[in-house]
């Protein structure tokens, strides 16, 4: 069984459609999520676009071209709480947790 590694943006629907047309795939491995907790608080839009919107584009392209299954590697960070270094007793809800 041959293996194919494609490095690209999972939100690039044109690239996905070309890929799914050219190859017969047995599934998709998704490792494209951003996971840096502090950065997600500073720039939540970046995380929303990459982790939500681009993944939705991938799922739609997979559906359109009947590609399955999807093996999704979820983020490695704990999305629900983060203790600030300056205020160790203060716990914050991380923006990524809202979508969980």
UniProtKB/TrEMBL annotation:
Signal peptide: none
Classification via Pfam families: GDP_Man_Dehyd
InterPro entries: NAD(P)-bd_dom (IPR016040), NAD(P)-bd_dom_sf (IPR036291)
Pathway participation: Carbohydrate metabolism
SUPFAM superfamilies in the cross-refs: NAD(P)-binding Rossmann-fold domains (SSF51735)
Domain NAD(P)-binding: 11-68
Highest taxon, organism lineage: Bacteria
UniProt record similarity statement: Belongs to the NAD(P)-dependent epimerase/dehydratase family.
Descriptive protein name: UDP-glucose 4-epimerase
Phylogenetic placement of the source organism: Bacteria, Pseudomonadati, Pseudomonadota, Gammaproteobacteria, Oceanospirillales
């Amino acid at each position: 069984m041959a293996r194919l590694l494609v490095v690209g943006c999972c939100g690039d629907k044109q690239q996905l459609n070309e890929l799914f047309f050219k190859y017969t795939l047995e599934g998709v491995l998704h490792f494209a999520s951003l996971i840096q907790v502090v950065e997600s608080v500073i720039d939540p839009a970046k995380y929303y676009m990459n982790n939500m919107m681009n993944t939705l584009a991938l799922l739609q392209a997979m559906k359109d071209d009947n590609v399955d299954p999807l093996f999704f590697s979820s983020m490695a960070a704990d999305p629900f709480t983060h203790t600030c270094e300056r205020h160790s007793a203060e716990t914050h809800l991380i923006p990524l947790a809202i979508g969980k």
